[in-house]
Amino acid sequence: MSESKLSFFQTVVAFFDEAARLTSHSPLLLHQIRACNSVYEMNFPVKFGKDRYEIINAFRVQHSHHKVPVKGGIRYSEMVNEDEVKALAALMTYKCALVEVPYGGAKGGVRIEPRNYEPDQLERITRRYTTELVKKNFIGPGIDVPAPDYGTGAREMAWIFDTYSALNPGQIDAAGCVTGKPVEQGGVRGRTEATGRGVFYGIRHVLSYAEDMKKLGLSSGVEGKTVVIQGLGNAGYHCATSFYDAGAKIVAIAEYDGAIASPAGLDPREVQEHRKATESILNCPGSQNLNSSQDALEYECDILIPAALERQITGENAPRIKAKIVAEAANGPTTAEAEQILYQKGVMVVPDVYMNAGGVTVSYFEWLKSLSHVRFGRLSKRFEEASNLSILNTVERLTGQSLSDEEKSQVIRGADEIDLVNSGLEDTMINAYDNIREVMHSTEGVDTLRMAAFVLAIDRVAISYMQLGIFP
Ligand code: GLU
Question: Across residues 176-198, what is the average pLDDT?
């Protein structure tokens, strides 16, 4: 079978197998890691009107129980199918291992086009889906913890939390059954922006290695880099604003209905405003429309960020990609065949399993908050400020110099929840990249970041299984 015929799950397995050959684990252990542990398909009726029912097809896949709970988003899309959910669940296992969050991988999917439903209909579907998960013990703070994904957001997570709580009265840790909740309902500040910000922190760190950038013909640093973003959803939008604010030039943006470009650079906030007003990014003032969404992928730029769905860069269009770096904000945007072509062209692909792990990283922080029942910074903020103030007063007294009120308030400021979340996210993205890069440079036969990421993830999952005493 040629690689382009591989399904999404088969593509993930192909990447896994290629990396697994470079490890020393037993075939049995590798088999256990590779396979999806539990696949749950459901079909349930939802009543929308007096005589109107629909049968909804949905899934939850738990890929690996080497650590529990398992974790992963829930996707609402017409393209949802078993193979896709299995692939996404497997990617979650490797992603969690890479950013060292203590979960196995899982994923959910509901096969609907959310644009075709009213909010109250979506609520009914979400609540019924949650009930199905509860019935089979597929959700819970210590069992399986869903989160947002393509087509879902904080609103859906609030419905899931409420349904779960109603079915588990008195469960004190119920808020830990789902992440990505609205802040008013136990969510954590910064979760919505986390995937996009994580992509930014990761790429900024990638760009800081001057010797790696030299090989690509790029200077180090974000400022002045040209960026193309495919998908102005949650990940793509916050990624775009982070790059824009850091001085990068967003030269093209693609959405499902078309793409726009501007060599002078687009302001993503303006594009978003235009889209809210007209329901499309097309015809945004100061930009030109491209012929198709696909054209944006082939647009001249330093960094291409696919932030939409899987299988966007294929054997067909990979030869025409002009970017020097492909930053996979989406899951599975590059097929195995395209990966080969990009490698031969000298393009650096920063793989999804690392690149978009900011979402689950901040989900982990939210889960900790839900279980500890206290806002980050609540116990320490005032104490930190008082300590900083007394140090500052001492320095001022000893030096005879004093700061302006504005400088003073900046120096003494204690960390709020958002500061701690962003700092934890930044630290996680930096450490994970350094670990992956180290494996790439130190492991014989590993010559791409994706292979390095898979080797590292497989090693970490294997160690967990061995610690459980199941495998020698
Ligand atoms: N859906 C996101 C992902 O694919 C987030 C998962 C989570 O936060 O659990 O990584």
Answer: 98
